[in-house]
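Can't paste images in this forum, so I'm doing it all in text. The chain is below; anyone willing to post the predicted structure tokens underneath?
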Amino acid sequence: MLENDLSSESKRLNLEKERAIKLFGGDNFSIEYEEESQRIRSAWERFVETGELEAGVVREVIASSWKRSREFGVDPNIKDIYQQVPDDEKERRLRNSHILCEVARPFLENLFVSLTKMEFAIALMDNEGFILQVFYTGVIKEVMDEIGVVPGQFWTEEIMGTTAPTIALSTGEPVQVVGEEHWCEIAKFATCVGAPIRGPEGNIAGILDISSRYELAGDHIHTYGMVLAAAKAIETQLQLRLAADKLHISHGYLNAALQSISDGLIILNKHLEVVQINNTARRLTGLNISQNLRRSVQNGMMLEKISAFAHTQKGFSGTETICKNNSGTDKRVLIDAEPIKDSEKRYVGAVLVLRELKQVSKLAQKIYGASAIYTFDDIIGEDPEFRRCVEVLKQASDSDAPIIITGESGTGKEMFAQAVHNHSYRRDGPFIPLNCAAIPRDLFESELFGYDEGAFTGAKRGGNPGKFELADGGTIFLDEIDSMSLDMQAKLLRVIEEKRVSRLGGTSFIPIDVRIIAASRKCLEECIREGTFRDDLYYRINVVDVNIPPLRERRNDIPLLASHFIKKYSKLSSGKARIPHAETLNTLRAYEWPGNVRELSNWAERLLAIGDGMESSRKTNSLEQNKRDNNEKENKIEVADVSDLESLKPHKLDEAEALIIRESIARNNGKITEAASDLGISRSTLYRKMAKYNIKVEKKVEKGPL
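Text version of the structure:
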């Protein structure tokens, strides 16, 4: 295609040269030109008057332009081509063509120097005939100024009819127009050569024109070739400039995209030199553009992975490694690598995507629900001791102090832990629960601290983060912490004090920022005395401690909780929220609830699930098994609206509880420890209830022998 274009241009150039030499280069120039000029003049006058054109008098390109000029209604006798072009329109067109002007200017200046001894005008127009620049020499400037061939005006077939630049603009082909071939009388003094300048897409970007008086045509018979050469040079340079600008813009887009990506991204050449890198990758690795990864001493582990990749040229994803930034901080990352190959499938570089493991963990936690769902608003109870626990934990939420929550199974220890997390500034971080009693001893360390690839037989490729890593930036809840072995307690203590973990089989430390909440059903002080729990760990994590009272010690909360759970399960089963009558509620209050709140929740769910069949199963119900009055008649459980709950008064039950406490204290001769053990409650709970019922202990004074 390119060869055909060049061949066509060459033929056209030769034809125009031959014509110029024939007209202007011979000794009989004046006679021969005048004779042809007269024939063209006569044909033009007849065509202007009648619209009829004798065949063969003028070239086809001229004849076609004359016809268009006549159809446009161009007055052949106009005096000038000045138009009222608004200033903002001029500014807009100059602004839109500023690259063309910048590129063309040095070539126009070279033409000007080459033709400085001649009398001519060089004009540059945009793709709609708007004159951008004009260079003049000699008196022709006065003529051009007079007819309006000046910057800021339009020079088109619709305005001036047949001229070299207007034909070039209409046809997209270079052409020379001499004297009488012009349509308008004001242009017939000149000979002009016009050539299109094309953009990267092949569209016309502008027009280059050189005009001179036709009498001087013999002095520059090679002008046509010079104009074509200049137009082609401008065209080539313009396309290079636009391509470079487009590449620059694309590079800007690419760079903006790279910087906006939250993951780290590095583009390497085949020599492992950094070609492009975004800010995230720079922060993680300390690398910069043009830096060679082989010379980055701090990224030895990363280099090992990438060097192997460069050798095999096979992409990989999710490979874990450690990067060091300029400050020497370890950053554990996952790397994806993809080779870059040229059109012949040769390896020329690679694209690396780096994801900080901490961010990946947070995303995974967000997707898979490693978060706390309960808040303090979800915790129900009005018992004074219970409310004191709530207030202590709510106040402690604002700090990073470790917390120990003790209480029987089913009292809601994890619910309290979640509420603390959601009330703290760590609420947007992960909440990672871990039941220490559910993990086999030989797997505990890897579960808690993670492991590196190859740490043991069957270890996951790439290693695996532990619960502490996953909890980074959030809270870890260690339930049943008393089940942890002594050696693991020692390792946990070190992690808490150093705020960093080392994976099983690993050689580096990973900094962590984790709040610890521990829980236990046992009294940890007794575990210390028994030698099953380290006292140094206990004192390290026992900054804030609360003991959640069992449900039997806050019986007044039972109706409230029963109502809550029945409403909850009614919504789930699309049923009407109804609760037992007061008599049945008394039965609930009298029951010991060894499973605490969890057992009460299960009872409410069972009530909603069984419905009318409750009576038949009631005989085996644990509530009835625990009735204190064996002579009480079997009571059918009926249901009433929730409003019946409001009228329930606990006075009789309080009196019974006070009586039981007095009897126990008397039975144990005023010894509080024995009385508390007899009642199955702690000493602090017994003292609190004694204060509630105004029970005082009178110790007997035994007299010695006389």
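The radius of gyration is 48 Å. The chain has four domains: 2-243, 261-357, 369-549, 552-648.
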